[in-house]
Amino acid sequence: QVQLVESGGGLVKPGGSLRLSCAASGFSFSDYYFTWIRQAPGKGLEWVSYILSSGSTIFYADSVKGRFTISRDNAKNSLYLQMNSLRAEDTAVYYCARVPCTRTGCSFYMDVWGKGTTVTVSS
Amino acid sequence: QSALTQPASVSGSPGQSITISCTGTTSDIGSYNYVSWYQQHPGKAPKLMIYDVSRRPSGVSNRFSGSKSGNTASLTISGLQAEDEANYYCSSYTSNSSWVFGGGTMLAVL
């Protein structure tokens, strides 16, 4: 069964740090690209970051650039998001999502999503 | 990258058809056929409904269809059913190697 499970969310003070994890199962993790997407309370979806299969190519939204770091461990079938210098506006549910890939290349949409992990930044 | 523009809400009666629009720019929808649509029920994760403008993933009802003209994409749901009531988000890949989402449209099935 194809599955993504996020963990690591919680309550953190402004300026603090948190590391989110996303455990994948049911498919060949190393063959796919992954994204982090967040949703503030009562708001829409916001793309955060994107990492290619080898981990060597990474992109970030301007709102998190320089503060967040995406990474992956293909041996552990896991995706990570290190979040530093957290602000109140980073409060959201964070989803990891898979970008489908085939032998001919990768796509530009997210076909599998985790259930999300909640991050609250508050003093 | 500014968010794509969607109507805040739409409504329809069971059996009717509705269309949700999603307007972007020449840097996203207008330049790529990489528009996708996601359905999200309250408290749940988003679910992929349409990708690459008009393609349906396996398991998604053929009542859902997508199209694009210029900088505007559209999602049409025909034969509305009660379970279609949810929030719908459009998304597009962009020229900045990123994704942009719409603000979301709440669909009410009256």
User: What fraction strand of chain B?
Assistant: 35-45%
Please tally the β strands of chain A and state the result. 13
Order of helices and strands of chain B: EEEEEEEEE
Task: Name the poorly predicted regions of chain B.
Answer: none
The radius of gyration of chain A is 14 Å
- Based on CA atoms alone, the radius of gyration of chain B comes out at 13 Å
Secondary structure class of chain A reads: mainly beta
Give the percentage of residues in beta strands of chain A.
Answer: over 45%
Give the ordered list of helices and strands of chain A.
Answer: EEEEEEEEEEEEE
Oligomeric assembly:
heterodimer
Could you say which structural class the secondary elements and strand pairing of chain B correspond to? mainly beta
Distance between the termini of chain B: 35 Å
C-alpha end-to-end distance of chain A: 40 Å
Query: If helices are DSSP runs of H or I spanning 4 or more residues, what is the number of helices of chain A?
Result: 0
Largest beta-sheet characterization of chain B? 6 strands, mixed
Outline the secondary-structure elements.
The complex is a heterodimer of chains A (123) and B (110).
Chain A: E1 3-7, E2 10-12, E3 18-25, E4 33-39, E5 45-51, E6 58-60, E7 68-73, E8 78-83, E9 92-99, E10 101-102, E11 105-106, E12 112-113, E13 117-121
Parallel strand pairs in A: 2-13
Antiparallel strand pairs in A: 1-3, 3-8, 4-5, 4-9, 5-6, 7-8, 9-12, 9-13, 10-11
Chain B: E1 9-12, E2 18-23, E3 35-40, E4 47-50, E5 64-69, E6 72-77, E7 86-93, E8 99-101, E9 105-109
Parallel strand pairs in B: 1-9
Antiparallel strand pairs in B: 2-6, 3-4, 3-7, 5-6, 7-8, 7-9
